[in-house]
Here is the input.
Amino acid sequence: MVLKYSPMNRLLPIVCVLAGTMFGQQPPKMMTRVEVAFHSPDVPEGSFAAKPKVFYRAGGRYCRIEEAADAEHSLHNLMIISEPDYWAVNLLAKTAQHGVDPGPTFNCHLPIFAYGNPQSLDEETKEIRQLEFGRELEFFERKGSVPVPGPVLFEHETTSYKAHVGTAALTLFVAKSAELPIAVSLKRGDKNEIFLYSQYARMEFDAKLFAKPADVKIQDSKP
Here is the structure.
């Protein structure tokens, strides 16, 4: 399961065959909760795209995305994934679309800079999509990034990690005090975009967050 998530677009599930953990494993003991806000010259301050969003991930099978309400379009999107099942929920309409990942492997992904359809992307964009919420440092370590002193952000001294993917420059800023991400940026051509983290926490796994949604009308997607 790949989640197509773009600050400029609505959340859409796209099922793909990807290497991942096998269905039937024991639930994880811990999960990660990330709250972020997107900043870009193309995104007006106060707009829906600039509102904070919350991401959860636990192991390879469990992901959740909580968006702010968008009253103008009668939407309040929530995505719940408990592989192989996933639910795209509109909390305002109290409706949900249910689907099942066909496998044979089951893994959910939370790409940070996710543009376009994963089925028809150039290699550079595919590689950028490998940078995911909850697994930020892993990406930069795989790229051989060497930590160097970074700027002071939100009164925190930081360590920065840099990686180049084709024409794109990616940077992760980690707060020295907690050794947790505080910002991640992408510079690609004339684009200069950044996600700022207001929370990054690791906590005990809560199975209720990834369960079938209650009090909504659920429609099954056609195979």
Q: What stands out?
A: The domain at 2-211 is CATH 2.50.20.10 (outer membrane lipoprotein receptor (LolB), chain A). The chain has one domain: 2-211. Residues 136-142 form the longest helix (7 residues).
